Amino acid sequence: MSTPQTFQRMTQRALKHHSFAVGAAIVLLLVISAAVSLFWSPYPVGDIDIPNKLAGPSAQHWFGTDSLGRDIASLLLVGSQNSLLVGFIAVGIGLGLGVPLGLLASAQRGWVEEVVMRAADFTFAFPALLSAILLTAIYGPGLVVSITAIGIFNIPVFARITRGAANAVWSRDFTLAARAAGKTKWTITWEHVLPNVASVLIVQATVQFAIAILAEAALSYLGLGTQPPNPSWGRMLNEAQSQMFQAPMLAVYPGVAIALAVLGLNLMGDGLRDLLDPRLSRTR
Amino acid sequence: MSSFVLQRFFSFFATLAVTSVVVFGVLEWLPGNAAQVILGETATPESLVAMEEKLGLNQPAFSRYVEWVGGLLQGQSGMSISYETPTAVLMMERMHVTLPLAIMAMSITILMALCLGVYAASKQNSKGDIGVMTLSQLGLALPNFWLAILLILLFAVHLQWVSAGGFPGWSEEDGGGLWAGTAALILPAIALAAVQTAILTRVTRSAVIESMSEDYVRTARAKGLSKQQVLWRHVLRNAMIPVVTVMGLQFGNLITSAIVIENVFVLPGIGRLIFQAIANRDLIVVRDVVMLLSAMVILINFFIDLLYAWIDPRLKTGTPAV
Amino acid sequence: MTPSNTTPLLSVRNLRVGLQTSHGQLEALRGVDFEMQRGDTLGLIGESGCGKSLTALAIMGLLPERATVSGSIALNGTDLTQLSDEALCTLRGTRMAMIFQEPMTALNPLHPIWKQIAEPLQLHQGMDLVSAKARALELLERVQLPRARERLDNYPHQLSGGQRQRVMISIALACQPDILIADEPTTALDVTVQKEVLALIRQLVAEDGMGLLLISHDLGLMRDQVERVMVMYGGAVVESAPTKALFGMRAHPYSQGLFAARPQLGLKRGTRLQTIAGNVPEIFNWPQGCAFADRCAYVQDNCRQALPQLELVPGTHDGIDENVADKSRRVNAHWVRCPEWQKLEASA
Fold this sequence. Notes:
The structure holds 3 protein chains of 3 kinds. Chain A is mostly helical. Chain A is built from 10 helices and no strands. Chain A has helices spanning 3-16, 18-39, 72-108, 110-125, 128-139, 143-170, 173-180, 185-221, 233-242, 253-276. In chain A, helix 2 packs across helix 3 (72-108). In chain B, helix 9 packs across helix 10, helix 10 (227-265) packs parallel to helix 11 and helix 11 packs antiparallel against helix 12 (283-311). Chain B contains 13 helices and no strands. Chain B is globular and about 85 Å long. By secondary structure, chain B is mainly α. In chain B, 39% of the residues are buried. Helices cover 77% and strands 0% of the residues of chain B. By secondary structure, chain C is of the alpha/beta class. Helix content of chain C is 31%, strand content 21%. Chain C is built from 12 helices and 12 strands. Chain C has helices at residues 52-60, 85-91, 103-106, 113-125, 129-142, 148-151, 161-173, 191-208, 219-225, 243-248, 253-260, 301-305, and strands spanning 10-21, 24-36, 41-45, 68-75, 78-79, 96-99, 179-183, 211-216, 228-233, 236-242, 311-312, 335-336. Chain C is globular and about 65 Å long. The two termini of chain C are 26 Å apart. The chains are: A mainly alpha, B mainly alpha, C alpha/beta. Chains in contact: A-B, B-C.
């Protein structure tokens, strides 16, 4: 079957899969919001309008205003940029460094594998959020530090997953045949192992993306993440908490945004897991 | 004691030792030295020197490390910079809040997740199963501190059943009491438990489903056991193995999530301590608390390993005899 | 073998099993008929996917939830297809027992073996732990497990494959069932152990006067172990005959192919091994008529349209004039499901 046909079949299957379809739709919404917000938002996010503070939803402010009179809708919209950025970079760091480590460990076996896996296991023993808080404490709060901290903890995750999946590929006979034919480990890794582990990595990437968003939200809530005036959903929740008695809904909107983004990614990840690796799919 | 247990014991101590080195090392490896970090950029040279003296930075790192570990093993610890009290005292005080909180949250999690997971697995693909799975998807997506805020909104602001935060203390002289203390911890425990329950429910469900498709289930049915009997006598114990693994990991998650939750509810626990210490740049407290938390996680993992040996006889007996 | 006036031990009539798959509703068993008396040994042979294990599971009532069963399965006169699962639970392990192919995974790794043997005793006979453990020891000695007393507290992973299968046999025989179904009991074992385990099964079955339904894909096994053989292909029995008769003459093209494909000693060097052309069709590709049609050298149009009926090879029944419905009771009868069988060269 030609590539355009298989692609068409794949998309058809994907769209029929409920989990994936719903998840992908939500994620698409997120991406579109972020893209749109780059050029436009109902109000500039810096605009402070004290006389109109803590207003309820209206035609001018669809979700109302916060304690400084800023438009909630705009803050939510622009905040999506933040979340996406965190997700991409954190997962990027994890993939960029973790996958090669995992492939290395799997290809070399022996003490290399031992060392890499022990180091990964060890990092798991350190509570990730705690270490992220530590790092932000030492190097100062802010988006860059928090993304890096979250990203660093993705490395052992991807290293482990890659190594596990790669081991399964190496144990299959065709790699033995390739070796017998004279191919080097690196060629085999690049040509055979990597494509076969790709599906597992894609699924894990969506999971880690969601985790990164949650982690950054927690750090921002604690004041250690994205600093003002850049909007962040997590920080919005912190600010809303002090207004709980006057304007309770302020605490709801950013949370819904975070939950929705994470839900969308999780559903998409579940769907991808079924679609990309049918042998692993649960009985329906 | 079997070789397995001895192995695990050795591994436990080794990990603890390495952790202590790393914790110590990370704080050595700072931009500038510890004194500069603690006092910040506005520090005068004199105060810097004084601080360096206080921290004993003129001594080599190794001897400071030995002093630290030696002190810990004897139950003594360094003095907090900001509180002027031994960190051990501070930590013990705060554990009176965090430990009960963690235990409450873990208990809720285990109870709910096991029930829901087994139920969903035994009624696979039914409406009940789909309901449980949907709920768990939602549970996974909720940031726990948001759930905490929502719970406060509902139970404290709207219904006014509990206060919006704070901890009255365990003794009645301080204005608290057993009941008041527990009441203050319920909402935080629920907020902590929600995500963990969602995760554990899914793990339990898939572990039970996996167990149910094993061959020994078919054998048990061929013996004449009913589906219920098979579930209780054969499936559950086997399913517990992966479940227990995850429970161990979750404890670590729980402890760190407590940092955020304690801040939401303004509870004077370990989480809030470390947070304040970081804000105050009190590196001594930070170092000791990180060590304590890591040690707790490592200890829990050790107990989980022992639990495995109890559940799975293949580990106890070592190499199979033929 | 006793004449057919008493209630047969097992009587399977027009057994059809439908499975719900992602390709739709499929008929996995297309009308299986056979009968067994106490003490009969019946072999069921065929390739993977022909439905032999499914037949066994259908008898035991252990088919997957989504399977539909029609026809009748009468054990000692009781139709099992009409019983609830609770009722079947009282029969499983007591009147009918089954052993499976993979002794490695068929035992619970977390329970000591005496407990697994004691389980049916406690369940069905209300024995207490102490007596059950003692009885488990007796059973293990009966299946000739070496050093049985020491082995009682062992876990499955501490035993070899052959030993585990002996444990399985003792579990099956614990409550002295009327019929033992053995689904490829030795396939996963070493060749040397296979003979011992099969001999054990044969001996125990003879001692207790049980019926034995032995399922295998191995022809050689059938020759020594059972008195009658049924050949299955594509969800139906295509040939059924006493073992000696079948080894003497095959009437169905598939059976002929099976026998011809056996490697034999004494062939000239360079002789090609015989194979049956084509592949076993996947269950969702089974044709309307005979499932062997695409691989058969003698296929006719009517073969494809509908599943052929079972015909009696003349001269193979015991001569008593009975009506059509009782045909399958004639124990020496040689049945074949092929309208063209007479055109085949009968090969020895």
